[in-house]
Amino acid sequence: MRSRTNIALGLAATGSLVAAAPCDIYQNGGTPCVAAHGTTRALYDSYTGPLYQLKRGSDGTTTDISPLSAGGVANAAAQDSFCKGTTCLISIIYDQSGRANHLYQAQKGAFSGPDVNGNDNLAGAIGAPVTLNGKKAYGVFISPGTGYRNDEVSGTATGNEPEGMYAVLDGTHYNDACCFDYGNAEISNTDTGNGHMEAVYYGNNTIWGSGSGSGPWLMADLENGLFSGQGTKQNTADPSISNRFFTGMVKGEPNQWALRGSNAASGSLSTYYSGARPTVGGYNPMSLEGAIILGIGGDNSNGAQGTFYEGVMTSGYPSDATEASVQANIVAAKYATTSLNTAPLTVGNKISIKVTTPGYDTRYLAHTGATVNTQVVSSSSATSLKQQASWTVRTGLGNSGCYSFESVDTPGSFIRHYNFQLQLNANDNTKAFKEDATFCSQTGLVTGNTFNSWSYPAKFIRHYNNVGYIASNGGVHDFDSATGFNNDVSFVVGSSFA
Ligand SMILES: *[C@@H]1O[C@H](CO)[C@@H](O)[C@H](O)[C@H]1NC(C)=O
């Protein structure tokens, strides 16, 4: 604690607050972090401890990923080496504040999660690669059904106490389900009433509130309402966001709250709302409970998606000046995109996708009508079968950094997942279709290439009983079986039959 204070005072004396990390800045401003979560980097200049824990599929062991240096970017190479040849999940997001407010797999609440015990899933570790100042790091890619939580917290705001928070997010990854949140929620995983939450929300849900345009928007989840401003309705000063990296801030104190945001890669914060609490009963005073959630609503509503890179919660209502310094520090961290593929494909190529599982390696990914399956194909097969097993690589319909596979014999139709089974469907141009039809290409777990679903990066194209799925390495479905998983998700890409 002493060294942190010294850092803050030293920087205050020179006035160069931008050099300090976010939690040094909040500390200096008199509103210290009580939770600090970042898989991408340390959020204190002096922090050298673990940022997150990985759990790998091959043997179930875990490892901690730390910054490369004090206050630095995460050691992504350590993740790549630990996860080589297997799958990895982010099992803990550590709290850097010293209060042990770590984020763990969210447990069942009013709503159940998809795992075998009704809890939420953990995030796949490879879904959100980025660079910070040119150094690779991984964010937390939240698919529907994924969530993190801590109900046994220390130091977060309760009752009507003041607090602040920010989250750096992928502004292009969202949906309109409830609720991609980061912040203060119920300790019971259930809805205990208006004013029992105060969290950053990001997405284009319009059930309670909205901003200008068609979204997505930064809003505050105050429980039983996503608020873009004072009322529960539209606040046209809350803009639609199109930034790839976005800083969203929410803060509250007795009968006052604010919503502020900015491009996280440049520029300064704008205030979308600052004023009184909603007049609907229950929000003034607030009844905060202090649990911390990521990717879900307070009652464990888990239909939303989004990407979280870093965020904190503070004790006390941060000043606008403090928040401006934090935003400057985020910009200086230089978040940037990097390849989503470790084994890129060539867009426009016509390919075949060959099974490698011993005993099945005369089979290729093919389709029979709408069913995506594997079939035995060879140079002497009928032209129609050859065409069924031939795919054109297209730019990913849901994310241009990955790929979509268009059927050679049914142009305009693509491989997509639906209830985790692969299907061949015509592109209907919906956001859901495009995302379901987008796959990224990684170095094969055993050989060749392994394809993760863009929208569910913990799930990979797999053949099981000669049918195509997106499967996790162990899970609730028979096709998630860990037995044979690595072989079943390893395919050899070759030139097409037709
Ligand atoms: C959210 O955005 C998507 C993509 O533009 C759109 O299809 C969907 O209807 C929107 N949802 C709402 C509630 O506006």
Automatic annotation (TrEMBL):
Its EC number is 3.2.1.55. GO terms for cellular component: extracellular region. The keyword Glycoprotein applies. Disulfide bonds join C23-C33, C83-C88, C178-C179, C402-C440. It comes from the Eukaryota. One of its GO terms (biological process) is L-arabinose metabolic process. Its main location: secreted. Residues 1-20 form the signal peptide. Pathway: Glycan metabolism; L-arabinan degradation. InterPro entries: A-L-arabinofuranosidase_B_cat, ABFB, AbfB_ABD, AbfB_ABD_sf, ConA-like_dom_sf. It holds the Pfam family AbfB. The active site is at E223 (nucleophile), D299 (proton donor). It is found in: Secreted. It catalyses: Hydrolysis of terminal non-reducing alpha-L-arabinofuranoside residues in alpha-L-arabinosides. It is an enzyme of class 3 (hydrolase). Residues 22-336 form the Alpha-L-arabinofuranosidase B catalytic domain. One of its GO terms (molecular function) is alpha-L-arabinofuranosidase activity. Keywords: Carbohydrate metabolism, Disulfide bond, Glycoprotein, Glycosidase, Hydrolase, Polysaccharide degradation, Secreted, Signal, Xylan degradation. The keyword Kinase does not apply. Residues 354-493 form the Alpha-L-arabinofuranosidase B arabinose-binding domain. Belongs to the glycosyl hydrolase 54 family. This is Alpha-L-arabinofuranosidase. The gene is abfA.
